Amino acid sequence: MMNQLGRHGSVSLLALLLLSSAFGASVPQLGSAAPAFTLNSQDGNPVSLSQFRGKWVVLYFYPRDMTSGCTIEAHNFQRDQEKFKAADAVVLGVSVDDTKSHQQFCTKEGLTFKLLSDTDHKVSEEYGSLTNLGLVKFSKRHTFIIDPQGKIVQEYPDVDANINQHSEQVLNELAQLQKKG
Questions:
Q1: Which distant-in-sequence residues (6+ apart) come within 8 Å of 24 by Cβ?
Q2: What's the number of domains the chain is made of?
Q3: How large is the average pLDDT for residues 12-26?
Q4: 140 in helix, strand or coil?
Q5: Is residue 96 within 8 Å of residue 90, measured between CB atoms?
Q6: Is residue 20 part of a domain?
């Protein structure tokens, strides 16, 4: 195959292989049960999706602690914590960073909601949110709203962290979903 493709063809083939592996597993379908998980939070305690049954869950994946885009996104979710509580919703952030990194990020940025550590990449992959840059794997910006019965009812792929309205967008959609419910 290498001989048939030549030098440029092999680069294209390599690019395709990298690109296909960057997208990982497929995203769970709207209306399907949210994949179950248990991950440690910044305080080192395990947090399971099942413990929030009966509440709305905003599950957001992000690349790295203490980076500019991730800090903007976290600040916006923090700013709106009282609104999420009033909507009977909990916000959970997930990245592949370890609990120590999450703890430092929360302390530095004054974050009070749970950041979950997916160091083995399994949850990010199950939610179709794992990507890579060369050999480094990380969670891509991806948000899900999960209803009180544990079903995925909304998805926001490829969130732009520089748009300050994402948290507000999620709150507005949450209000609409709750009216339908």
A1: 124, 125, 128, 129, 130, 131
A2: 1
A3: 43
A4: coil
A5: no
A6: no
| Residue 129 domain-assigned (yes or no) | yes
Contact 28, 35 (CB under 8 A): yes
Query: What local confidence, expressed as pLDDT, does residue 7 receive?
Result: 38
Q: Is residue 138 part of a domain?
A: yes
Give me the CATH number covering residue 156.
3.40.30.10
pLDDT tens profile 122-181: 999 999 999 887 778 889 999 999 999 999 999 999 888 766 688 999 999 999 999 986
Residue 85 in tokens? 């509580």
Q: Which of 57, 70, 116, 145 is catalytic?
A: 70
Q: What range does the domain containing 76 cover?
A: 27-180
Distance in angstroms (rounded) separating the CA atoms of residues 42 and 3: 51
Residue 106 falls in the annotated catalytic set? no
CA max distance for the chain: 63
Residue 56 resides in a domain: yes
pTM of the model: 0.84
